[in-house]
Design brief:
The chain is an alpha+beta fold. The chain has helices at residues 3-11, 20-28, 32-55, 62-75, 140-159, 166-178, and strands at residues 82-89, 112-120, 126-128, 132-133, 183-184, 189-191, 198-202, 215-218, 221-223, 230-232, 235-238, 245-246. It has one domain: Creatine Amidinohydrolase. The chain is built from 6 helices and 12 strands. The strands form 3 sheets. It has a 5-stranded antiparallel β-sheet with strand order 7-6-8-11-12. The termini are far apart. 40% of the residues are buried.
């Protein structure tokens, strides 16, 4: 509500009841029709990720590698509803900072690329799915982070159930990383729908109760203690009655031959 309307209603002695959180929690639970729109967006996002995997090759720029995905996204009906960033680094590791894919720097075999692909399909529901790319060899630290990501992937599915709190999901998802002494950067996860980031967020201390058919983007941003190495993948999940459902089918692994 804008300030002018709020002041007018308050001056007329109407009781104004906050509805923002209740509204967000209501729209976080998706109907069957909405879930089909979400699944269509995931299919589009996956198609773009496969285009990126297929286009990946050392000697291209980061932008050239992502260009076929951007074209595929438009072809499949996302219009301008897309936001694509990348985390990248040299010598088998990636830096933690997001940036726009470079149009000039040529990718080397040991550069690790972590594209952040976020789109909304024709139904308007945003989703996020991405996987790492490297032709050469990841560092031992990156490999250990990948092993922790595999544990997280299973833990997230176990935790994303009706009645769990956002804090409980965060603790389950972050445990494989924190118990190894690493830190987390970007938020562990959040509700996603007609806008990219919605309430509730998945984080420490958030006691919001999750309900079946909520749709969440999960993306633990694991960062080494020295702040020089990270791993970051995105997946879109449906909160289930007994187990969470990852909506994408792309294998959870590092692509490109490394």
């Amino acid at each position: 509500m804008n300030v002018r309307d709020y002041r007018a209603l308050a001056a007329a002695s109407y009781e104004l009841v906050p509805m923002d959180e209740a509204f967000d929690l209501a729209r976080a639970v998706k109907s069957e029709a909405e879930l089909e729109s979400v699944r269509e967006s995931v299919r589009i996002n996956e198609a773009g990720m496969w285009e990126t995997i297929g286009a990946y090759a050392p000697g291209k720029t980061e932008a050239e590698i992502m260009a076929p995905a951007a074209a595929r996204f438009v072809e499949m009906g996302i219009g301008r509803h897309g936001m694509n960033m990348v985390l990248s680094g040299t010598s088998g590791r990636a830096n933690p900072e997001f940036k726009i894919p470079s149009e000039t720097r040529l990718v080397e075999p040991d550069d690790l690329l972590l594209y952040s692909l976020e789109v909304a399909g024709p139904g308007g529901h945003w989703v996020e799915v991405s996987r790492p790319l490297i032709a050469g060899q990841p560092t031992d630290l990156t490999r250990r982070m990948m092993e922790a990501y595999e544990r997280y992937f299973e833990a997230a599915q176990d935790a994303l159930v009706d009645g769990a709190t956002a804090d409980e999901v965060h603790r389950a998802a972050s445990r494989p990383f924190l118990e190894r002494g690493w830190q987390l950067g970007h938020v562990t996860g959040h509700s996603i729908g007609m806008t990219m980031i919605e309430h509730p967020r998945i984080g420490a201390g958030n006691e919001t109760v999750l309900r079946e058919n909520m749709v969440l983007s999960m993306h633990p941003h694991v960062i080494s203690q020295d702040g020089l190495t990270c791993l970051y993948m995105q997946d879109t999940y449906r909160v289930g009655r007994d187990r969470g459902e990852p909506l994408a089918t792309i294998p959870l692994r590092i692509f490109g031959g490394g």
